[in-house]
Amino acid sequence: MSEVTSFAELDLPEALLKAVAELGYETPSPIQAESIPKLLAGNDLLGQAQTGTGKTAAFALPLLARLEAGQREPQILVLAPTRELAIQVAEAFQSYAKYLPQFHVLPIYGGQSYSNQLRSLKRGCQVVVGTPGRIMDHLDRGTLVLDKLKAIVLDEADEMLRMGFIDDVQVIMDKTPPGRQVAMFSATMPTQIRAIAQKHLSNAHEIKIVTKTSTVERITQRFVLLENNQKLDALTRLLEGEDYDASIVFVRTKSATEEIAVKLGARGYAVASLNGDMNQTHREQTIRRIKDGQLDVIVATDVAARGLDVERISLVVNYDIPYDSEAYVHRIGRTGRAGREGKAILFVSPRERRLLRSIEQATRQPIEQMTLPTGAVIEQRRIQNFRAELAQSIETQDLTFFQGLIAQWQETLDCADNELAAALLFMAQKDQPLNVAAQFPALREPSNKRDRERSDRPVRERGERPDRAERGPKPRREMKGDYTTYRIEVGKEHGVRAGDIVGAIANEANIDSQFIGNIKLFDQFSTVELPATMPAEIFQHLKKVYVRKQKLNISVDQGSTERRAPGPGPRPGAGPRPGAAPKRRSQ
């Protein structure tokens, strides 16, 4: 097909084109240009493309164009491997469908309240985006009906395979009506994924997008591994410890732009926010102020910063990691302009390392880990800046009046020259103390031991596995606090692996993997250590979660051992007893 230069050439409805234009989309990416016409025509599609190539718009826009406006039952089902991706895709659908009448999209994933999901399903929605486990749960309950489904999308199918969800995906697809449209996207195409495509796709068009390096070579890219509650402290250190002329800080939400700008302003920075709620006049004033040197920092969202071209910006801070690699490329493109050097720094929490790897794979450039400036570095920088301002004042200001005051005060206070100078220096630096090394302890490393160990390992291409000698012995999980051992009714005979159990609990119960203790696999059941303070609603939800087509049916373990044959099952009503003393995990 000829090169597509605008979305208007793709025969999309005017309502979608208007929303796309407002989002700042101009030229369709290769995956969008090839996928949209085929999906608009009702064809099945098998797409191979990395995260960050614009896949969401590639399937969302054409499928939205084929919706029946008056139908309340789900017409589109999107399966995603993680709740983070499910939320991202649902938000994208909502943005694209801004001007479609009576449109509703519902994200469904573990850790959410069932009652809220049930109310939304009863109210009606055209699009459901969810993780396989929670979708299976609603199908088993009969609360999600797919009789009117027009299309199903498998997003990041290879990730679902890696996380052990592919069997659930097969079951879900078998429950969709015949004749529905199928779109499958995967960064790689292993045998199992291609087998699913051959079984469920009909006369599918196959598209493969080869991603080229798209980041600017003059930009130095680094990341900081930290917990989310450390971001503001880390940002303050970077702004003090890094050399830059002006900086732009990217966040995900409009409210975050204002909140962080206020907090930075309170710490003495010349800062302003930039978001989609601002009118054009206010936006132009803000951009003019940073160009003129009246501002040093802008806190912005992706949409608000599109088209921003300010030569002073030499540092980009990704305060919130973008879900889309294409958005990352746009962000860091705000620096390193006109042939100058630029710096881009990315904040990454342990749970976001997968997004970091996706960005590296999509851009084909490694992002190096960095350490934050120490208190000693910040102290020296403050002293140097203060000394430079002092020297400028000596050279450029008429100090006659102040010299007279100094002579008068020396006589009145009966003090030496250096004492008076030290006292004045102390008073002048109160808002930004010069002696700060002791006040800036090193930020605590992320608590997930495995993530700390992974941070020094080289990035591997997806699907590449190190040999046993390189991997070394698997470290034992070390955690503190009260833990209870639970029994789940899935074991070796069902083909389960420890990773399957971790993935199911982490994604469906919203329990971070670092809080999942030791796992032991037996023939017909397994045991897993979980926090004793786990809420009762999560415990009840885990009873219904599936792994390898088996319900977990979780219960408090009554002393299972490898030598003991599995009994008839847990006692009726097994589970955490209100007020019961938790098992104390040995330290």
Mean pLDDT across all residues, rounded? 80
Instruction: Point out poorly predicted stretches.
Output: 447-480, 561-587
Q: Termini separation (Å)?
A: 64 Å
The figure for the number of domains is 4
Per CATH, which architecture of the largest domain?
Answer: 3-Layer(aba) Sandwich
Number of strands: 20
The portion of residues forming beta strands comes to 5-15%
CATH superfamily of the largest domain: P-loop containing nucleotide triphosphate hydrolases
Shape: globular
Describe this structure in words.
There is one protein chain. By secondary structure, the chain is α/β, with parallel strands linked by helices. The protein has four domains: 7-208, P-loop containing nucleotide triphosphate hydrolases (Rossmann fold), CATH 3.40.50; 219-372, Rossmann fold; 376-389 and 401-439, no CATH class; 477-587, Alpha-Beta Plaits (2-Layer Sandwich). It is 39% helix and 15% strand. It is built from 22 helices and 20 strands. The strands form four sheets. Strands 3-4-2-5-6-1-7 form a seven-stranded parallel β-sheet, with helices on both faces. It has a seven-stranded parallel β-sheet with strand order 10-11-9-12-13-8-14, sandwiched between helices. The longest helix has 22 residues, at 375-396. The protein is globular and about 95 Å long. Mean pLDDT is 80; it is low at 447-480 and 561-587.
